[in-house]
Amino acid sequence: MRSRLLPLLRSPLLGELLAWLYLHPDQSYSVTELARRFGSSQSTVSREADHLAKAGLVREERRGKMRLLQADLDNPLARPLTELLALTYGPAAVLADLLPPVRGVDAAYIYGSWAARYAGEAGPPPRDVDVLVVGDADEDDLADAARSAERELGREVNIHRVSATTWHGAADDPFLASVRARPSYPIVEPEDRP
Questions:
Q1: Can you tell me whether residue 185 is helix, strand or coil?
Q2: Which of 27, 117, 128, 157 minimizes the number of CB atoms within 10 Å of its CB?
Q3: Strands 105-111 and 58-63
Q4: Are residues 161 and 97 in the same domain?
Q5: Which CATH number does the domain housing residue 78 bear?
Q6: Which of 47, 41, 29 minimizes the C-alpha distance to 96?
Q7: If the chain, 194 residues long, is cut into consecutive pieces of 10 residues, what is the mean pLDDT of each piece?
């Protein structure tokens, strides 16, 4: 399936992989860790890594049997590629850093046009990012996270919070029914919580 967020890419996995590496440029990640993060097989991630390394977009290092990948910031494409990835696949990478540490976030999902494009629905590029947070997180902490994400992504981030009781029990809420019926992308899932 071709990427709808960045149609230049042959797959959403490639977009996620590049965004994660380029938006975390100071860190190296193992193929195993990346496969687990993106719910993909190690062989698929390894094949993508082979292509990216040959193109000079990622650096690889071997530590025993472990293969570590890192964005190659010396590549002349690094700066514009990072900007492009922040605008397309960036919400998943950036929000995955910002929301899990916020106390009271039981679950969090990107919904709306970004999630629809990620799921393969045709349409214009998303202008903003809509996030549903389940839990009792402080609104000020969520607003701080949204502002941090906006600075990194260069677009508006809207966070809507609902209590766990409302999320699990409000079958008649039109907004939540709409969110449940449309594509969403999990940022924090209940089993991810400590």
A1: strand
A2: 27
A3: unpaired
A4: yes
A5: 1.10.10.10
A6: 29
A7: 82 93 95 94 95 95 94 95 92 95 96 93 92 97 97 94 88 87 93 54
What's the pLDDT score for residue 3? Answer: 82
User: d(Cα 163, Cα 167) in Å, to the nearest integer?
Assistant: 6
Which residues does residue 63 pair with via DSSP β-bridges, in sequence order? 66
> Do 165 and 97 meet the contact criterion of CB atoms below 8 Å apart?
no
**pLDDT score recorded for residue 85:** 93
The pLDDT, as a whole number, for residue 8 is 85
Domain boundary among 88, 103, 136: 88
pLDDT (0 to 100) of residue 173: 86
Q: What is the pLDDT of residue 6?
A: 86
Report the number of distinct structural domains present in the chain. Answer: 2
Q: Is residue 37 part of a domain?
A: yes
Strand partners, 160: 132
Task: Examine the fold and report which residue of 73, 88, 103 is the final residue of a domain before the chain moves on.
Answer: 88
67: three-class secondary structure by DSSP: strand
DSSP state at residue 119: T
Q: Residue 148: which of 140, 53, 68, 160 has the closest Cα?
A: 140
